[in-house]
Amino acid sequence: MQHADHLAHLRRDGDRMADLAAGDLTVAVPTCPDWTLADLVEHTGFVHRWQAAVVRDAPDSFPDSATWRHGPAEGQALSDWFRAGVDDAVAAMSDVDPGAPRWTWAGPGTAAWYSRRIAQETSVHRIDAELAAGAAPGPVDPDFAVDGVDEMCDVFIPRAKGQPIGGHGETLHLHATDADGEWLFTMHADRVDVARGHAKGDAAVRGAASDLLLLVWGREPLGDLETFGDAAVVARFREAAKI
């Protein structure tokens, strides 16, 4: 997906979260243990602000929190504060060359790394917020969901090397049924290797791309997933996704 596509998703999902933040902020977030909706909204709002600061100011390390970590002003509703952060992030990222080099916590990157990261995080947290508010989660565009699984493979799984995965070479194949997306995960003791494309694994999971996205983020899918093969492999992957 392109930089502009990510910003369009950020705008849509960010506005939805802002609307939900105007409701009961004390409700628990079932997908984020120990968080209330207020905690979730504040966390996501701070993510928007520090990522906008990186894109705008091009620091060579994590930006000084004094430049971006500001909560709502006196008398400002959390929903308005959150929406202002979405506005600022969209504006900052719309004004920059997507290919402009930028520091990232995953290594050298570009401004487009941030538009993708911020859009994908907001999408998942939008669903978290809807579940907390008791609202039916809205759909995730299948191609955007495939991009989210790809981002997990590109950014997060490589950085998890050294974590206690506990695998012994078991393989799991994920297959999106509503978009072009297939992945093979090989679980080792301390890492997960990823290959894209059609393959046969010890187990397989098929379903909508949005549900596969939730699966790789350690969340329960909203729809039905078909599973085949060794159920223990699927269970091991689910546990690894929570690390």
Characterization of this structure:
The chain is of the alpha+beta class and 243 residues long. Helices cover 48% and strands 13% of the residues. It contains 7 helices and 7 strands. It has helices at 3-20, 37-57, 78-94, 111-133, 142-159, 209-216, 231-241; strands spanning 101-102, 109-110, 170-176, 182-187, 192-196, 203-207, 226-229. The strands form 2 sheets. It has a 5-stranded mixed beta sheet. It has a two-stranded antiparallel ribbon with strand order 1-2. α5 (142-159) packs parallel to α6. The longest helix is centred in the middle third of the chain and has 23 residues, at 111-133. It is globular. The chain starts with a helix and ends with a helix. The mean pLDDT is 96.
Present the secondary structure layout.
Elements: H1 3-20, H2 37-57, H3 78-94, E1 101-102, E2 109-110, H4 111-133, H5 142-159, E3 170-176, E4 182-187, E5 192-196, E6 203-207, H6 209-216, E7 226-229, H7 231-241
Parallel strand pairs: 3-6
Antiparallel strand pairs: 1-2, 3-4, 4-5, 6-7
Helix pairs in contact: 1-3, 1-4, 2-3, 2-4, 5-6
